[in-house]
Automatic annotation (TrEMBL):
Name by which UniProt lists this protein: DNA/RNA-binding domain of Phe-tRNA-synthetase-like protein
Domain of life according to the entry: Bacteria
GO molecular function annotations of the record: phenylalanine-tRNA ligase activity; RNA binding
Family annotation (InterPro entries): B3/B4_tRNA-bd, Phe-tRNA_synthase-like_B3/B4
UniProt-listed PANTHER family: CYTOPLASMIC PROTEIN, PTHR39209
């Protein structure tokens, strides 16, 4: 498991921040029918019981949006991934089918409201990560987004540079069909509430749909 540090600038901007890391050995697949049955059930529940204007009121999403403002980013222009996923569904647009690991992380994010970074652990450089705030002109290639302006966004960095923000993760450390070790970072900008449950959900889904074993879980703040 990687050591994860929280920078002073994040502590100043979001004093209640807490996170949990889930590491596991996995086998990725292009598609899991059982997982997509769960995703479709959640989609039905969300679209039946929620309105698009309610999304930003969900407590975890609201706290993440507030953290963006405190770090210097407009959450209306750069949405946290959990908010963006819910908005997509409520606009009647189906989720992309990427692969089992990515789809699984998206489901946990949708259910909990936490923005979750899902990384190929073997692509991370060094033995620790630090959560800081993005700098002006800091290079960052978002997955499927090209160059992303991460100034003012919370960002995890390894020994090389940024690997993940609550809006998008980096191409360099993204999961793919060859991924055999996952690191999922669950971000609690509202504090510790719900982190244990989100970590347990992640482990259960990884065991069920990605042959997850050798789990390690680490809470940090």
């Amino acid at each position: 498991m990687f050591e994860i540090k929280i920078s002073q600038e994040i502590k100043d901007a979001c004093p209640v921040f807490a996170g949990v890391a889930v590491y596991a050995k996995v086998r990725n697949t292009p598609f899991s029918e059982g997982l997509w049955t769960e995703i479709e059930a959640f989609t039905e529940e969300l679209t039946t019981n929620s309105r698009i204007e309610d999304i930003k009121l969900q407590p975890v999403i609201a706290a993440t949006r507030e953290a963006y403002k405190r770090c210097g980013k407009d959450p209306g222009r750069y949405r946290p991934s959990s908010e963006a996923l819910r908005r997509r569904l409520l606009r009647g647009i189906p989720l992309y089918r990427i692969d089992t690991l990515v789809d699984l992380i998206n489901l946990v994010s949708l259910r909990t409201g936490h923005s979750i970074g899902g990384f190929d652990a073997d692509k991370i450089v060094g033995n620790y990560l630090e959560l800081g705030i993005g700098k002006a002109a800091e290079p960052f290639e978002g997955i499927g987004r090209g160059v992303l302006n991460i100034e003012g966004l919370p960002v995890y960095r390894d020994a090389v540079g940024g690997i993940g923000t609550p809006t998008s993760d980096h191409e360099r450390t993204k999961m793919d069909i060859e991924t055999t070790h996952i690191l999922a970072l669950i971000n609690g900008y509202n504090g510790k509430d719900g982190l244990k449950e989100a970590a347990e959900m992640t482990q259960e889904l990884l065991a069920k749909y990605a042959e997850g074993t050798e789990f390690e879980v680490c809470f940090y703040e």
